[in-house]
Amino acid sequence: MSDETIELLRELTEAPGVSGYEQEVREIIRRQLQNITVIEQDRLGSIVCRKNGEAETPRIMIAGHMDEIGFIVKLITDEGFVRFSPLGGWWGHVMLAHRVVIKTPKGDVPGLIGSKPPHILSDEERKKLLDPKDMYIDVGATSAEEVRGLGIRPGDPIIPVFPFTISGTGKTYFAKGFDDRVGCGLFIDVIKKLVHEKHPNTVYGVGTVQEEVGL
């Protein structure tokens, strides 16, 4: 894989973009293709990049959804913890101790997903899969007022922190949001290659929204 492709995947996967808040991913796509396609955006937020060929039809669409699974702020407790709801499919076992960033109007706030400490769980509780409703995000605050002072509000998106990483063998890559930022990278790459090729059709590269919460 070329260095250019690796850097594109890095940029796409590290960008925050939970369902309904895909704007930063959309701007990467726009920046990559604005000089070689005609770009439109629908009212829901999907970006449509049209690469004209020698004929209007057939029309071919290559789509990848921009959104990733994440969370959204549900409420703030009196003790200064953030309760949250999942956006997309999560399994409780992979959520605990995960670093996150809460996107607020005042800027990014780092946090950590926690729960009732294991040493005070009953034997029965230890056997159960922990429900997200029993977890919280610790942002280092000790009161609801302090949390609100950071700019955190119900409805703010929460993004998992997971930097793009190349494995020791160099054969595989670790990142969040591979589903489906790889799809976005693919249509970007295809359209760039079509700049140097004649094609008897119209090709659309489309970054779609909110797949993780309803297809």
In brief:
With 215 residues, the chain is of the alpha+beta class. The chain contains five helices and twelve strands.
Poorly predicted tracts of residues: none
Average pLDDT number: 94
What is the count of DSSP helices, taking H or I runs of 4+ residues? 5
Helix content: 10-25%
User: Mind telling me the CATH superfamily name of the largest domain?
Assistant: Zn peptidases
Which descriptor suits the 3D outline? elongated
Radius of gyration equals 20 Å
Number of domains: 2
What is the secondary structure topology, with strand pairs?
Layout: H1 3-14, H2 23-33, E1 38-41, E2 47-51, E3 59-65, E4 70-76, E5 81-87, E6 99-104, E7 107-114, H3 123-127, E8 136-138, H4 144-149, E9 157-160, E10 165-166, E11 173-174, H5 178-194, E12 202-208
Parallel strand pairs: 3-12
Antiparallel strand pairs: 1-2, 2-12, 4-5, 4-9, 5-8, 6-7, 6-9, 7-8, 10-11
Give me some keywords for this one.
5 helices, 24% helix, six-stranded antiparallel barrel, four-stranded mixed beta sheet, Elongation Factor Tu (Ef-tu), domain 3, alpha+beta, 2 domains, Aminopeptidase, 215 residues, 12 strands
What would you say this structure looks like, in words?
The chain is of the alpha+beta class. The protein folds into two domains: 102 residues, Aminopeptidase, CATH 3.40.630.10; 91 residues, Elongation Factor Tu (Ef-tu), domain 3 (Beta Barrel), CATH 2.40.30.40. The protein is 24% helix and 29% strand. It contains five helices and twelve strands. The strands form three sheets. Strands 4-5-8-7-6-9 form a six-stranded antiparallel beta barrel. A four-stranded mixed β-sheet has the order 1-2-12-3, covered by helices on one side. Strands 10-11 form a two-stranded antiparallel sheet. β4 and β5 form a beta hairpin. The mean pLDDT is 94.
